[in-house]
Amino acid sequence: MGAWAIAVHGGAGVDPNLPKERQEEAKRLLTRCLDIGISALRSNLSAIDVVELVVRELETDPLFNSGRGSALTENGKVEMEASIMDGPKRRCGAVSGLTTVKNPVSLARLVMEKSPHSYLAFSGAEEFAKKQGVEMVDNEYFITEDNVGMLKLAKEANSILFDYRIPAVGTCGASAAMDSPLQMNGLPISVYAPETVGCVVVDKQGRCAAATSTGGLMNKMSGRIGDSPLIGSGTYASELCGVSCTGEGEAIIRSTLAREVSAVMEYKRLNLHEAVDYVIKNKLDEGKAGLIAVSKDGEVACGFNTTGMFRGCATEDGFMEVGVW
What we know:
Elements: E1 5-12, H1 20-42, H2 47-60, E2 80-86, E3 91-98, H3 104-114, E4 119-121, H4 122-132, H5 145-156, H6 174-179, E5 182-184, E6 187-189, E7 197-202, E8 208-214, E9 235-237, E10 241-247, H7 249-255, H8 257-267, H9 272-282, E11 289-295, E12 300-304, E13 309-315, E14 320-323
Parallel strand pairs: 3-4
Antiparallel strand pairs: 1-7, 1-13, 2-3, 2-8, 5-6, 7-8, 9-10, 10-11, 11-12, 13-14
């Protein structure tokens, strides 16, 4: 019997002027999710069960960009995506383009367990969801007043707006960022804070699992698929570790960031902390991203090259931490 560990994230790339109340709200949600995961692990739930349970909680709360509260496409709709992976046999499931599935991460798990495939998208994924009897809602359920307002700002700026929670006036730097935009694939973007969610777990049996879920980018092109549902990029779990990534999706895709952590542990014989540091420093080129990870030995680690990352972690020996910067 080994030691369990869990980590959660709510996105990398936090605006340095993020209001204090917003930070505290995020910390409370992350703490609640950690408590749910800790309780489940103490009840001997498997790692794959725990990551699904925690990410469902994150999808249900509108604070971060997944499930209810997801970012809006250029057409004012929500297109969600998620993935899940079970380390012991590297089973995985992923979904994209969901518009009516209440909890995308659970549909991703059903793809893994109840279909002959690993990835379903758009109308095919929605049809599979109906056949599986998962809870479905109108697209309006996912749309919040904040998101409608931020989509309007993004369209006025003719830009993809990453941190759709931050107003364009007041204490934050959204408007300033529009004057000096970052680049994604050579094109301008705005404030960098995607707020994708994810969870990684290793249970007492040393089984690792990972799950990631997101609504994508505010004002994204309809049909855009990011890193979150891509196994090896946004999500990966093996017999060695479980990893969930967040940040600039296109950079994460190019670097197959999640898989890189497992690969350098396997081939370079690095421990978890060394592996996370290595890939963040060496595999992102000019991209901005972060990740959380656990190892089969009960270690937990996080890394990011942005100003901050909403994150929390806990281990069986009583360690628990929630942070933003």
